[in-house]
Amino acid sequence: MTETASVDRYFLAMADPYRRGFIEQLSRGPASVKQLAAPTNVQLPAVLKHLRVLEDGGIVVSEKVGRVRTYRMRPDAFDVTTNWIEQRQRDMNAAFDRLAAAMAQVPEEKDH
């Protein structure tokens, strides 16, 4: 998967408030589907769809033991976007550095 596709999938996964809520819960530790659904008042099939989007986005992983599916955050869940944001910051800083260098080349006007 390309970096652009990874970033797109991540932001798609993060675009929904329910999914962000699940991420907040999972950042405190693993949880079952039932545990994740409890505070949302959302039906289990809808919760599973949201969790599938988070899994496709590379943010969470799941494991099924018996009849219980447990989700947890991936240790590298935020690496793709962190790298993307840091690159945008480097690009922006380089642009400001070029602007500052160009401005330093322009002679100041003297008031007469």
Automatic annotation (TrEMBL):
<dbReference type="InterPro" id="IPR036390">
    <property type="entry name" value="WH_DNA-bd_sf"/>
</dbReference>
<dbReference type="InterPro" id="IPR001845">
    <property type="entry name" value="HTH_ArsR_DNA-bd_dom"/>
</dbReference>
<dbReference type="Pfam" id="PF12840">
    <property type="entry name" value="HTH_20"/>
</dbReference>
<protein>
    <submittedName>
        <fullName>Metalloregulator ArsR/SmtB family transcription factor</fullName>
    </submittedName>
</protein>
<feature type="domain" description="HTH arsR-type">
    <location>
        <begin position="1"/>
        <end position="92"/>
    </location>
</feature>
<dbReference type="InterPro" id="IPR011991">
    <property type="entry name" value="ArsR-like_HTH"/>
</dbReference>
<dbReference type="InterPro" id="IPR036388">
    <property type="entry name" value="WH-like_DNA-bd_sf"/>
</dbReference>
